[in-house]
């Protein structure tokens, strides 16, 4: 049955979320700083609580199916956003972004992610409304993504420039020093971009690729564009604080990628089953619905998503403990969290941490 929430609730939700994001952006812009673990934990807890309150409102105003679809979608997008966050960590270290300004950079990355996902949600909803067979493609794509997630080489993710970044780097005049949060600077009388423009381009192209994974995944849980978009917003809110809270721990959660891969594979199978159940392609079963194909319900999906992340996290923490490293030590890393440009989780030894200096003119500071 098609879900329908009151229009006033949907409009009001968008207004409130826009105000929260605007406040977050203003807070970051007016007060650039390195958040403490306590501050980051409080903000993450606030955004998680906000998502749970929203789910409760959906339960009261809509029904349990509304709330269940939102929770399953939110948790799916949250788990995929953590994978996104890992690449953000690499990018920050690769381009040696000063930690004091990483909040602003991350906020721009999150806004770009919201824009890209919003576009893909509209496209996905239109395709689903017009072509039911698109679920076959979505399912196959997620199964391929799950395989790549589990067995692909993730060590180089974020370390190699995309073709777009390489193309732009050749055409833009980029200085070799950051100037706070400025995109433009003057070097020897010449107007140039700061390395921040390359960081934004790297984050943007990364966001675009992750949107390609995440949108088919959540459409496997709900076909409501409202639930899809709000689940994405709530998953991305607090991602900036989670970066500072767990940056050093992310690469220690070695089994997390398998948990995410299992979720993607499960949703991929669910999408294929759904496509078979609603089949209208003439060359499959004569264009008739395949009745034996199961239609996996929302609550089963929610249980699988939660179970996968819990098992992957616990297994990773157990392995971390057996290696002789405590969680506190993993979170705080090697102590190289100064303002000199190392990213959370990479320290000063991050891959190509001084990369911007290799592609720019003479350093005016020297």
Could you name the key traits of this structure?
two-stranded antiparallel sheet; single chain; disordered C terminus; 366 residues; 2% strand; mainly alpha; 12 helices
Task: Give the SSE map.
Elements: H1 7-30, H2 37-61, H3 64-94, H4 102-130, H5 134-151, H6 163-171, E1 184-187, E2 190-193, H7 196-219, H8 225-236, H9 239-250, H10 256-277, H11 298-322, H12 327-332
Antiparallel strand pairs: 1-2
Structure in a nutshell:
By secondary structure, the protein is an all-alpha fold.
Description:
The protein has 366 residues and is mainly α. It is built from twelve helices and two strands, in the order ααααααββαααααα. The protein has helices at 7-30, 37-61, 64-94, 102-130, 134-151, 163-171, 196-219, 225-236, 239-250, 256-277, 298-322, 327-332, and strands at residues 184-187, 190-193. It has a two-stranded antiparallel ribbon. Strand 1 (184-187) and strand 2 (190-193) form a beta hairpin. The longest helix has 31 residues, at 64-94. The chain starts with 6 loop residues before the first helix and ends in a 34-residue tail after the last helix. 42% of the residues are buried. Residues 335-366 have low confidence and may be disordered.
Give me the strand/helix succession.
HHHHHHEEHHHHHH
Sheet with most strands: strand arrangement: 1-2
Largest sheet: 2 strands, antiparallel
Main structural class: mainly alpha
- Note the gap between the termini: 67 Å
Provide the gyration radius in Å: 22 Å
Low-pLDDT parts are 335-366
Number of helices: 12
Shape: globular
Strand content: under 5%
Helix content range of the residues, please?
Answer: 55-70%
Roughly what is the average pLDDT, rounded to an integer? 79
Strand count: 2
